[in-house]
Design brief:
mainly alpha; single chain; 307 residues
């Protein structure tokens, strides 16, 4: 159910499970930790960073109590550290995320049956954390290492997972920060192709890749290609209404494009107003207006990657 993103259905089940397990001493910590971990994951997928962090830290506290009782590190403990790190990234608190990613990797290296591919996720997200701090070189190094680890384990053209697409997307971000626009466009396009093939054309990650490729088409003056991708981006985000900031950016980009032509100026103005409306929902104390929006209003989205 969680994989199908039916958040409205999963939450009552988590409430019931918490009530049941909260009344039992045996295995209580383990069961409650799983519940809080799931709550955190759901909130993260809803882009609710503060709630995701709250539940992730609750899960970690319980896992630490288990660690004190057993004296043994577990994969579950590593996952809780990882989940806290992911929540910090979503909250744009990258300096706090990095120690949790490093602790995740340290625990996994010491577990029985450890394989280098177990480090892929925390290593990749450590790179994204470095990018949030402006360390483009550090992000590139971590991302290329994660790419090499995945390809050594799964091959160079693994179509059974979206994760190679997430790596290609991050490399697109890195090249963009380095001013290597042609290379960035190639990585973003490769990411989009991989994501559509593995998770479909309606996933949030696909929307982010669509928007990134569309921005490159806009820079290149390729308005038809940009329009098609921005329409797809808006369609996807409207299917996932918690992604207001991302929807606002897509509406802004498409609205600005349409507003540049007399024939579509009215449609462009409506999209710009929709972008402003989305931002007002996020920040009700700020009176955004469509005509006043600039790219700077969406600067913080440029380092999220596919996390």
């Amino acid at each position: 159910m969680y994989e199908r993103s039916n958040f409205g259905e999963i939450w009552p089940l988590l409430d019931l499970a918490e009530e049941i397990y909260g009344a039992q001493e045996l295995e209580k910590y383990q069961k409650l930790s799983i519940i809080y971990h799931l709550r955190s994951s759901v909130e993260r997928w809803k882009s609710n960073g503060e709630a995701a962090l709250l539940h992730a830290e609750a899960s970690l506290r319980l896992q630490k109590l288990l660690r004190e009782q057993t004296g043994t590190d577990t994969m579950e403990l590593s996952y809780t550290y990882y989940n806290v790190g992911l929540a910090f990234i979503l909250c744009k608190l990258s300096s706090k995320a990095i120690p949790y990613m490093e602790q995740t990797m340290e625990i996994r290296k010491g577990l029985p049956g450890y394989k280098p591919v177990d480090l892929f996720g925390p290593l990749h997200h450590r790179g994204l954390s470095l990018l949030q701090q402006g360390d483009v070189g550090g992000c590139e190094s971590a991302t290329l290492e994660a790419k090499a680890i995945w390809e050594a384990a799964k091959g160079t053209n693994d179509m059974n997972s979206f994760r190679p697409g997430s790596i290609y997307f991050t490399l697109g971000l890195v090249c963009e920060r380095q001013g290597l626009m042609a290379e960035s466009f190639q990585w973003y396009t490769r990411a989009l192709t991989h994501l559509v093939a593995t998770i479909g054309d309606s996933h949030i990650y696909t929307a982010r890749a669509c928007c990134a490729v569309a921005e490159h088409h806009l820079r290149r003056g390729e308005t038809r290609e940009a329009s098609n991708l921005l329409e797809q981006t808006i369609r996807i985000y409207k299917m996932h209404p918690t992604y207001k900031e991302e929807l606002a950016k897509a509406c802004f980009l498409y609205g600005r494009l349409l507003a540049g032509s007399p024939a579509s100026a009215s449609s462009g103005a409506k999209l710009l107003d929709e972008a402003a409306s989305c931002l007002r929902e996020i920040h009700p104390h700020v009176q955004y207006a469509g005509v006043d929006l600039t790219e700077e209003h969406f600067h913080g989205l440029g380092t999220l990657g596919l996390s």
